[in-house]
Design a protein that fits this description.
The chain is mostly beta strands. The strands form two sheets. The chain has a six-stranded mixed sheet with strand order 2-10-9-4-5-6. Strands 1-3-8-7 form a four-stranded antiparallel sheet. The mean pLDDT is 93.
């Protein structure tokens, strides 16, 4: 069982920026690989950025150079800074652990809509 709370989504114009936040417990933050995922309408959920405990980061090709995943150890929070947003970035964004993904356990996510 995992517990995470996503926030920070909203409506932005193309080229705009948003920063998503994922609040976790200390145990989850310390013991699991954290990542951001998204699901666009009519599409399957896909990984966006994965941050391992060892510091390795994997970004989806579609967001490389535009999105940055980071974490604040003091706040047990993972962030996704999204710049140069495109309409195709429109999706529900989810924060999750490797365990949560494995168990297909997801939170409510946060809606990101990129539109003029």
């Amino acid at each position: 069982q995992v517990q995470l709370v996503e926030s920070g989504g909203g409506l932005v114009q193309p080229g705009g920026s948003l920063r998503l936040s994922c609040a976790t417990s200390g145990s989850i933050f310390s013991n699991y690989i954290m990542g951001w995922y998204r699901q666009a309408p009519g599409k399957q959920r896909e990984p966006v950025a994965i941050l391992s405990s060892g510091g390795s980061i994997n970004y989806a090709d579609s967001v490389k150079g535009r999105f940055t995943i980071s974490k604040d150890n003091a706040k047990n929070t993972v962030y996704l800074q999204m710049n140069s947003l495109k309409p195709e970035d429109t999706a529900v964004y989810y924060c999750n652990t490797n365990l949560g993904v494995r168990l297909d356990h997801w939170g409510q996510g946060t809606q990101v809509t990129v539109s003029s």
